[in-house]
Amino acid sequence: MIFVTVGTHEQPFNRLVKKIDELKRDGIITEDVVIQTGFSTYEPQYCTWQKLYPFDQMGKFVDQARIVITHGGPSSFIMPLQIGKIPIVVPRQYKFEEHVNNHQLDFAEAVKERYGNIIVVEDTETLGDVIKNYDQIASGMHGCGLDNNAKFVSRFEEMAEELVRGKRK
User: What is the pTM of this model?
Assistant: First the structure.
């Protein structure tokens, strides 16, 4: 099963929801797909979906999923990392009116560069290939390094603060 979450930000993330639905329709994705669509206006035709799921249910989906695909919100991609899964992160982008700026893209790229434990997909046209090759891509990545949660959280907070202050380029 593939679980997709776009978070709870009030701007639609139709670009991701629609692409996942198309990949399922076209047989690129053959397993079941569950999507939390949030405030997206596109309604999937080929996937199980709901606008919002309770937190406990989201945790169950993340646990059961072979692949977790998230937007670039840290809370969403940390959840799979905490249980040793490598998430595919598709950051919301300003140019598509999915967020107020590109902080999700900047943050996801910084996490990818620093920790090497997420797969960032900026262009949804490449998402099908990433999903098809997920096992191979993820096998070459190290887990989260969450065996020392306190250290990870501390470093993660420092990085977030650096990004907010604009110290990272």
Answer: 0.82
Q: Dihedral angle at the C-alpha atoms of 83, 160, 90, 142, nearest 10 degrees?
A: -40
Place of tokens 């569950």: 34
**Residue type, position 114, single letter:** R
C-alpha 102/C-alpha 98 separation (Å) is 9
Amino acid identity for residue 82 in this structure = Q
Instruction: Specify the residue for token string 């999507």.
Output: 35
The rounded distance, in Å, linking the Cα atoms of 48 and 35 is 6
Residue-wise pLDDT tens digits, 99-135: 767 878 888 988 988 888 999 999 999 999 999 999 9
Task: Give the burial class of 54: count Cβ atoms within 10 A of its Cβ; 0-12 exposed, 13-18 middle, 19 or more buried.
Answer: exposed
Long-range (24+ apart) CB contacts under 8 A made by 134-141 are: 134/66, 134/67, 134/88, 137/86, 138/86, 141/86, 141/116, 141/117
